[in-house]
Specification:
Layout (H helix, E strand, L loop, with lengths): L12 E5 L2 H4 L22 H5 L22 H15 L3 E5 L2 H4 L10 H16 L3 E7 L5 H7 L6 H17 L5 E5 L9 H5 L9 H26 L4 E8 L2 E3 L4 H23 L4 H9 L10 H7 L4 E6 L3 E3 L3 H4 L2 E2 L6 E2 L15 H15 L3 E5 L17 H19 L4 E7 L19 E3 L11 E3 L1 H11 L8
Parallel strand pairs: 1-2, 1-12, 2-3, 3-4, 4-5, 5-7, 6-8, 7-11, 11-12
Antiparallel strand pairs: 9-10, 13-14
The structure holds 6-O-phosphono-beta-D-glucopyranose (BG6).
6-O-phosphono-beta-D-glucopyranose binds next to loops.
């Protein structure tokens, strides 16, 4: 009755995760339109644009835009998928570039060449029995929708997104069983242009704009869930949270409360997507901050009746906070979320806290809060790799990071948490969403490409390639001893 598990579940979905703009390249091929991410350069203008403080509606000659070529998956997907198959992937998470399907976003008819491209990719995956896991929107909005409508500030976006999502469900209903609506939906509050195609104008009330946009995305997400359930009843559709529990720096109740409030800033989105209604703490926050959300009478029902089937999330690091201004000065980086340095933990080269046990804590927390299956759809170590003369990369640091996280994931499963699968971020090196660098590599497969766009794009297996292959082949049995 209380038997000990001996491995990850038989149907556990091992794989890797990517996003269209970070790997496809071919940014104007096959009739694709320009998206927000195609206009975010590397360099000093990157963060002001990503945060919506500087507009960017046309590529500029003197800027370098890494999404334009990325790692050229668009032309090399067969080679890449063959490598994923060699590792034994059971699934592959990818996003669809909205502007490949609707180049302007408000087009009446979809673009057949774009639809066909993903048909070809899915066929290639299915040839190897690799289940596609599809994010409908991963940090890209057709730029026309930003110019004409103001991105997710505008309620019209719900309609465009619903049409886009329905087009995908109808077209791929026989090929795709796992869907996700918005990648890291809570990122909207931190990187408004990346998260929601929002450019903030001087004098605008930022919080008001962002939470109104959040409402539009939440309704759009619920309508996509509805359409998915109607068009592909056997499919599962989830939300996607940039997760990582916030720890209090001390046991001072004020610190504990602040940590809880910061967690809730992110949980707000998932509470709505999973439980179907605005939580009381958010209503209070809106009331006390003079935020007024315009809602249509039908919105409450749409949200309540169309909740997600599973909770997808990314986990790179835990966070830490304090109410002490002195302690608050000692900040560290980490997936955009500010965090106080945790004295018990090390950090990556990019300053992201490394906390394997935090993954177990986060899994248990999400399980207790939502009672739905979880899907760990991003996790990994961004590091500088060196390609050796014998054509490999000795990335023991990456193996160590993953090994320690897998051990905690196994603990979470033994704690009773249902986890559908695990897709590590960037199984093949790709462009960093944060910095736009190639140098920040996550892959099991090395790609010969440099920050400035030079390189042959050749693919090389790293040491971790062989290691991950073994873990998958053994169903991670070593973590259940
Ligand atoms: C997540 C995003 O926030 O983190 C990915 O969903 C991103 O798109 C990943 O690439 C890692 O971040 P970065 O900045 O190292 O690429």
């Amino acid at each position: 009755m209380f038997e000990k598990l001996t491995s990850f579940p038989e149907n556990f979905l091992w794989g890797g995760a990517t996003a269209a703009n970070q790997l496809e390249g071919a940014y104007l091929e096959g009739g694709k339109g320009l998206t927000t991410v195609d206009l975010i350069p590397v360099g000093p203008n990157r963060f002001p644009i990503a945060m919506g403080n500087l507009d960017s509606f046309q590529p500029k000659e003197d800027e370098f835009y890494p999404s334009h070529e990325a790692i050229d998956f668009y032309h090399r997907y067969k080679e890449d998928i063959a490598l994923f198959a060699e590792m034994g992937f059971k699934c592959f998470r990818l996003s669809i570039a909205w502007a490949r399907i609707f180049p302007n976003g408000d087009d009446v008819e979809p673009n057949e060449a774009g639809l066909q491209f993903y048909d070809d990719v899915f066929d290639e995956l299915l040839k190897y029995n690799i289940e596609p896991v599809v994010t409908i929107c991963h940090f890209d909005v057709p730029v026309h929708l930003v110019k004409i409508y103001g991105g997710w500030k505008n309620r019209k976006m719900i309609e465009f997104f619903e049409t886009y999502a329905k087009t995908l469900f109808n077209r791929y209903k026989d090929k795709v069983k796992y869907w996700m609506t918005f990648n890291e939906i809570n990122m909207l509050l931190h990187l408004p242009y990346i998260g929601a195609g929002i450019v903030l104008q001087e004098g605008e009330d930022k919080q008001q704009i962002l939470y109104q946009a959040a409402h539009h995305e939440l309704v759009a997400s619920a309508l996509a869930v509805k359409a998915c359930h109607e068009i592909i009843p056997s499919a599962k559709i989830g939300c996607m949270l940039a997760a990582g529990t916030v720890y209090p720096y001390t046991s001072n109740p004020d610190d504990v409360w602040k940590a809880m409030e910061q967690d809730r800033e992110s949980f707000f989105f998932i509470d709505v997507q999973s439980k179907g209604a605005y939580p009381g703490y958010t209503k209070r926050f809106f009331r006390e901050h003079g935020i007024h959300i315009e809602m249509q009478p039908e919105d409450a029902d749409i949200l309540m009746q169309n909740t997600v089937d599973y909770i997808g999330f990314s986990y790179y690091a835990s966070r830490c906070t304090s109410t002490d201004p002195e302690i608050l000065k000692d900040q560290t980086e980490g997936n955009v979320f500010g965090s106080v340095k945790n004295p018990y933990l090390d950090a990556s080269e990019w300053g992201w806290t490394i906390d394997p046990k935090g993954l177990r804590i986060t899994c248990n927390q999400l399980h207790d809060r939502y009672g739905k299956p979880l899907f760990i759809v991003e996790n990994g170590l961004g590091a500088t790799d060196v390609l050796l003369d014998n054509d490999t990369v000795e990335d023991d640091y990456r193996i160590d990071y993953l090994d320690r996280h897998f051990a905690e994931m196994a603990e979470a499963i033994q704690d009773g948490v249902e986890i559908l699968g695990y897709t590590s971020w960037g199984p093949i090196d790709l462009v960093s969403a944060g910095t736009g660098e190639m140098k920040k590599r996550y892959g099991y497969i090395y790609v010969d490409r440099n920050n400035d766009g030079t390189g042959t794009l050749r693919r090389v297996k790293k040491k971790s390639f062989h290691w991950y292959k073994e873990v998958i082949a053994n169903q991670g049995a070593q973590y259940f001893k």
